[in-house]
Structures are given as structure tokens and as C-alpha cells.
Specification:
The complex is a heterodimer of chains A (543) and B (68). Chain A is of the alpha/beta class and 543 residues long. Among the domains of chain A are: 15-88 and 122-196 and 295-357, FAD/NAD(P)-binding domain, CATH 3.50.50; 436-542, 3-Layer(aba) Sandwich (Glutaredoxin), CATH 3.40.30.120. Chain A is 27% helix and 28% strand. In chain A, the strands form 5 sheets. In chain A, strands 1, 2, 8, 9, 10, 11, 17 and 18 form an 8-stranded mixed beta sheet that branches. An 8-stranded mixed beta sheet of chain A has the order 6-5-13-14-15-12-16-19. Chain B has helices spanning 15-26, 31-49, 52-64. Chain B has a domain at 31-68. Chain B has 68 residues and is mainly alpha-helical. The chains are: A alpha/beta (543), B mainly alpha (68).
Chain lengths: 543, 68
């Protein structure tokens, strides 16, 4: 019934089954979803080879994750698929919240200009996976993508993991230095390791439908409390490419999922929203939501990323986006450790940074789901108070929770960052904000095109960079012609967003590690060592 | 860069923390105890506001905004 025709990716018998010598792998990735594929591509960009093992041979069925946030798009752009997603997807930034059939208020998720990527792009997960699979083909010597290769055992050892894999041609095993489980909410690897997935389940059931129709709904996120077309509950509508709309309807606690997913039940519900226009059901699912996470994401040489590590309810678009940010955080760290440039403590920082991000995502999505599904009379009363006040009293809109949408996560205050107390600019831990620049030849582009991949020094306007540092420098000058080897701050937005006369140490994932008003070689080396998980034993540079 | 979502209010994004604390404070209370908690809280907040005219205006706003 799905409109999108999933092609089958080619299965090839594993060379290990043809008597080939078992080759030790630096990284084995379980699961070729968006997170596993993004990780494989990022590792390949660092020159690290991986084998990706997936138990089937098609992309996801149904649209699943659809809302890709600005930060995720920036990561995907670094990986080489972001602009393709931008051109295919539906760009949006405005959310509208209704009570009944009246609009309460709207909000703008990116009220400023001067960014390559918009607040959000809606694009079905199957397209994202297709683009990522095609991008993997650009790294034939580095990404070994194996379809219908099901991991059936993972035995952790001190220096790696022994992985047993079932294929249509039989079972083989490989040794990997690192295993990354990107195998989803029901992670088989998590089960193999016997790990507890603690958290909270919501009893409320929701219907999720992809509806194909010609309609004139705007490219905005529309959310209804107590809509007239779906009495007493909530509804969410998102526009996707190919004339497909995502509709989420709250069904209540007593709803029977088997009954509710039948077309004769679904069609009248959709008809109530879309009116008389013709439509086709493309995909239907009935869900309950859970907010859970592993206590730790790093277990020796086994690392969890994406839904295998944490799950959230969908209100806030924090599932898929959280997973891609896991991959962004992990790839450079794994590559650095595998290269021998940092110790394994750097992988511990993945646990620290992404557990905190997961907690923020869980907190926000649990609160939004809680607001939509009040469990007590008091909760219902406060929700009603917020909604009643919201139209006339803007302050009360802050209390209305129709989803707190995924924004770039700050790593401020965590181990790798060198804190400071300077005001303004970009604080250590924050993601580098984008801004328009032009290169020495006058070609217009964006700042983030020049950051990431490795550590960089970003020098904004007039700041001296100490000699003797083995780090690429990205210099942005205030106006044209001033600096022939640097970038031109086209709209002065680099200076506005970063401050002038500041030197930034930027991590490979485009987060700020440290910043300096009066940089010294010793201070930069100390911050770099810290950002690579090494104890700051750098005083010898001063001595 | 901090996206505005949504504008208005003096608590900013911390409004969610306040809302969560309110709900948590009521957890396990019966109706009478909840009502008593709210009444105490309103008196405390009225004093925090420190402006009788503002509090009286707030009472009028609350009364006028009552849904059906």
C-alpha cells in the first residue's frame, strides 16, 4: 500500500563465508538506519573503515522520522547529503497552536536570517536512508555495507568484540575493535548484553497516518488541542514532500490498537480533518510512547547510539535528531582513538555528553506528552488554565506545551570544554552558529562549510594566532579585500554572532571547545588536550 | 541564537520547570488538599508580586479568561 517503492539493496555473500581470512575490523556498526549510516559516512570522512550489518535489505517502511532539525541538517551537510535533503524536503519554521478551531498563537523557530539551513525540513525517513546509502557508495574502500546480515551474538572482550552474523548463506564471525549498536528501539545488541532500558511508558495511544492528497495546508506545524474534528483530544499535522501529510491523532488510553488501525476506523477520522477532497492512506500505525534510556551508552568496546540508547515520544522531533547528533558526537572521537591520537577516555566523553543530551530530550518530550495527556484532575485543571489564558495573555503561552522542538544541544560545562566567563559570543560547548561568508575568490558560502571534520581555529577579525600550532586556521575578516587568505564576513553576521577579536577552538563536530581573547600557544594546547580527553598536562609548553 | 518558542512571559524556557514543579507538588493530594495548596501558593505569589494594583488586575484577568 505504501506509495514509496522500496528497492531491495543487493545482498552479497560475505567473503568470510568463501574461505577468506577473517579480517579484524576497526569498527562494526549494527543497523543501517539513519544513525548507523551517518556514523559510517562520518568515520569514512575521517579515513576509518567500518562494516555495517543490517538484518534486512530495504529502507524503512512508512515515513517514521520526518522532522529534521537545523542542527541535524548541518551535520548531514557536512556528511554530504544535507543539500539534497533540503531540496527534496518541505522547509518550515512556523508552528501554530489551536484550541478547538481557533488559533491560540504561532511561533517562529528561526526568526533570524543568515543560516544555510532552515529551522526544519520535513522528509520521510526512507528518503534520508536512500540518500545516505547512496553517499556510502562514495567510500568503497571504507564502508562495507552488508544487507541481510543479522548480528546474532556480540561477545565483548577487553580489546574488542567478537560478532556472530547470520546470512542467507550461513553464519560467520568477525572481530571488531569497536561495535556500535545503532539497531533501534528494540536493540538486539542491548538484549545480548542484558542491559536494562529504564524509563516511563505513556498509556495514551496515538494514531499516526501518512495521507496522500492534494491540499493547501501550509508548510507549517499545526497542532490542535481539543480540535472540533477529533473531540476532546489533540491532533498534529505536518506536510511532507510528494503531497503526503503526516497526521497524528491522540486516541486515548482505552483505544484498541488492532481495531484502530483498520481502514474503516481510520478513514472517517481523516475525512473529518481533510473534508471532501480525495485522499489515500499511505501508512498507518497505532502507537504508545515511551521515554527510556540506557544508564550508560558506553560498555567497554560496545557503544550505543540512537534509539538503541534512548527513546522519546515524538512531540519535539527529538528521536531521529538526537540519534544523528549521537553519531556526530561519536564519529570523530572513535576516529581519534583508533588513530592513536587520544586514549579511550575520549569515548567516555561521548557517554557524558550524549547522556546529558538524552536526558534533556527525554525531559522535554515527556513534559510535552504529559501536557497532552493529563493524568489527574489537577493536571487537567492547570492545562485548562494555561490554554484559557494563552490567547489573550502571551505570558501563558510559555506554559502551553504542544512540543518543545529539537534545538542544537549545548555541551557547556562538560569535561572536554574549557570554560570561561566572557560575556557574549558563542560559549564553550555551544554549536558554532552559521553565517554567510565569501571565500578569497569572492564565492558566497557559509561559515559552517569551513568548520568541522577536524579541530580548527576560528579567528574572528583582528586576533593574533600564536605560531607553532599544528591546527588549520579559518580567519574571517570584517570586510572584503582586507585579508586575501581568509573569509569575508559578508553581512557582518560572523562578528555579530561570535564577537570581534576572538579566537575559537572548534571541535570536529562544530562545537566550541574553548575561546581566547588573548590567545597563547600554551593555552590553546591545553584546551586542545582537554578537548581530546587528555588530562591538561601541558605546563611543559610554558616551562 | 535562541529560537523564540513561543514569545511572551518573563520565565522564558524555565516556564516548563515551573509548570512541572506545580504538577509534581499536587501529586498524591486529594481535591481538598490540592485546593488548599493552590490557595496558599496564590497568597505567596501575590506577596511576591508586591503590587496590590497588579494583583487585583491579575485577579480580573483570571476571571475574564475563564473558559466554559
Amino acid at each position: 500500500m505504501a506509495r514509496h517503492e522500496s528497492r531491495h539493496f543487493p545482498y552479497r555473500p560475505a567473503p568470510e563465508l568463501a574461505g577468506g581470512a577473517a579480517q579484524r575490523r576497526p569498527v562494526a556498526i549494527v543497523g543501517a538506519g539513519p544513525v548507523g549510516l551517518a556514523l559510517a559516512i562520518d568515520l569514512a570522512l575521517h579515513g576509518v573503515a567500518s562494516v555495517v550489518l543490517d538484518d534486512n535489505d530495504i529502507v524503512s517502511t512508512g515515513s517514521r522520522a520526518i522532522c529534521w532539525s537545523k542542527r541535524t541538517l548541518e551535520i548531514f551537510d557536512r556528511l554530504g547529503v544535507g543539500r539534497r535533503m533540503l531540496s527534496k524536503g518541505v522547509t518550515w519554521k512556523v508552528g501554530r497552536v489551536f484550541l478547538g478551531d481557533r488559533e491560540l498563537y504561532s511561533f517562529d523557530l528561526l526568526p533570524e536570517h543568515g543560516h544555510r539551513m532552515p529551522a526544519f525540513v520535513n522528509l520521510q525517513q526512507y528518503y534520508v536512508e536512500e540518500y545516505l546509502v547512496e553517499r556510502c557508495a562514495d567510500f568503497p574502500g571504507l564502508i562495507d555495507l552488508r544487507w541481510r546480515n543479522k548480528v546474532v551474538d556480540a561477545a565483548p572482550r577487553a580489546d574488542g568484540v567478537a560478532v556472530a552474523v547470520d546470512t542467507p548463506d550461513g553464519r560467520y564471525s568477525i572481530d571488531a575493535d569497536w561495535l556500535v549498536a545503532c539497531d533501534g528501539a528494540h536493540s538486539p545488541v542491548r538484549a545480548m548484553l542484558g542491559l536494562d532500558f529504564a524509563g516511563r511508558a505513556f498509556e495514551e495511544r496515538f494514531l499516526i497516518a501518512d495521507v496522500e492528497m492534494k491540499a493547501e495546508f501550509p508548510p507549517e506545524r499545526l497542532f490542535w488541542f481539543e480540535p472540533t474534528f477529533h473531540e476532546g483530544r489533540s491532533a498534529l499535522l505536518h506536510k511532507q514532500p510528494d503531497d503526503i501529510y503526516r497526521i497524528d491523532l491522540q486516541l486515548g488510553r482505552e483505544a484498541d490498537p488492532e481495531v484502530e488501525r483498520r481502514p474503516e476506523r481510520v478513514i472517517p477520522r481523516i475525512r473529518a480533518i481533510v473534508g471532501d477532497r480525495p485522499f489515500a492512506l499511505d501508512w498507518v500505525s497505532v502507537y504508545t510512547f515511551q521515554c527510556r534510556r540506557l544508564e550508560r551508552f558506553v560498555h567497554g568496546r560496545v557503544v550505543f547510539a540512537g534509539d538503541s540508547a534512548h527513546v522519546v515520544s515524538p512531540f519535539g522531533a527529538r528521536g531521529g535528531n538526537g540519534g544523528i547528533q549521537d553519531a556526530d558526537n561519536l564519529a570523530w572521537k572513535l576516529a581519534t582513538v583508533i588513530r592513536g591520537a587520544a586514549g579511550e577516555t575520549l569515548i567516555e566523553s561521548y557517554d557524558e555528553e550524549r547522556v546529558r543530551a538524552a536526558d534533556e530530550n527525554i525531559l522535554n518530550s515527556a513534559r510535552a506528552t504529559g501536557f497532552m495527556t493529563p493524568r489527574s484532575e489537577v493536571e487537567a485543571a492547570f492545562r485548562k488554565a494555561a490554554l484559557d489564558l494563552a490567547r489573550e495573555n502571551p505570558f501563558a503561552r510559555r506554559f502551553v506545551n504542544a512540543g518543545r522542538l529539537s534545538v542544537a544541544y549545548s555541551l557547556a560545562g562538560l569535561s572536554l570544554q574549557t570554560p570561561d566567563d566572557a560575556a557574549g559570543g558563542v560559549r564553550p560547548g555551544e554549536v558554532c552558529p552559521d553565517a554567510p561568508v565569501a571565500d578569497a575568490e569572492g564565492h558566497a558560502g557559509f561559515l559552517l562549510d569551513h568548520l568541522g571534520g577536524g579541530f580548527r581555529l576560528l579567528a574572528v577579525s583582528d586576533v593574533a594566532v600564536p605560531d607553532g600550532l599544528d591546527l588549520p586556521v579559518v580567519r574571517v575578516a570584517g570586510s572584503g579585500l582586507a585579508d586575501c587568505d581568509g573569509l569575508v564576513d559578508r553581512d557582518r553576521l560572523v562578528a555579530a554572532r561570535y564577537g570581534e577579536g576572538v579566537l575559537y577552538l572548534v571541535r570536529p563536530d562544530q562545537h566550541v571547545a574553548a575561546r581566547f581573547q588573548a590567545p597563547t600557544r600554551a593555552a590553546i594546547l591545553a584546551a586542545l588536550a582537554r578537548a581530546m580527553g587528555n588530562r591538561p598536562a601541558v605546563d611543559e609548553a610554558v616551562a | 541564537m535562541s529560537p523564540v518558542q513561543p514569545p511572551g512571559g518573563r520565565l522564558g524556557a524555565r516556564a516548563d520547570d515551573v509548570y512541572a514543579a506545580l504538577i509534581a507538588a499536587h501529586e498524591g493530594l486529594d481535591r481538598e488538599a490540592s485546593r488548599a495548596l493552590d490557595a496558599r501558593l496564590i497568597l505567596i505569589l501575590a506577596d511576591l508580586a508586591g503590587d496590590a494594583d497588579a494583583v487585583i488586575a491579575a485577579i480580573a484577568t483570571a476571571k475574564a479568561s475563564g473558559g466554559d
